[in-house]
């Protein structure tokens, strides 16, 4: 996942991330080698590196200040801080979220079964 809050940018890496992705983006053998607060996106000649660097450049150009990048791995001590920024969006039509949908579906099934 990629997230920015206007002050910082974060890249979250799951514990099962493909080592090829890590190699293509950070020029490291595994996510275990990443230092979250010192990590940099290395300029490499591959599509993943080019696309991520392009995205970061676009976002930084739209902001008034240079946002520092943090890389957060699943189960890092800073992961709960990152998760506080995550919210579930409502549907495109302003409808229920997926959790709301499941709740109502479960309720309807219970009514039918009674």
CATH architecture: 3-Layer(aba) Sandwich
Q: How many DSSP E strands?
A: 3
Instruction: Give the topology string: H per helix, E per strand.
Output: EEHHEHH
Question: So, the CATH homologous superfamily?
Answer: Severin
The tally of helices reads 4
Mean pLDDT: 89
Instruction: Tally the structural domains.
Output: 1
Pick out the low-confidence regions. Answer: none
What percentage of the residues does DSSP assign to strands (E)?
Answer: 5-15%
The main pleated sheet reads as: 3 strands, mixed
- Our measurement of the CA-to-CA distance between the termini, rounded to an integer number of angstroms, reads 42 Å
Helix content: 25-40%
CA radius of gyration: 19 Å
Instruction: Assign an overall shape.
Output: elongated
CATH topology-level name: Severin
Strand order of the largest sheet: 1-2-3
The first-level CATH class name: Alpha Beta
Structural class given helices, strands, pairing?
alpha+beta
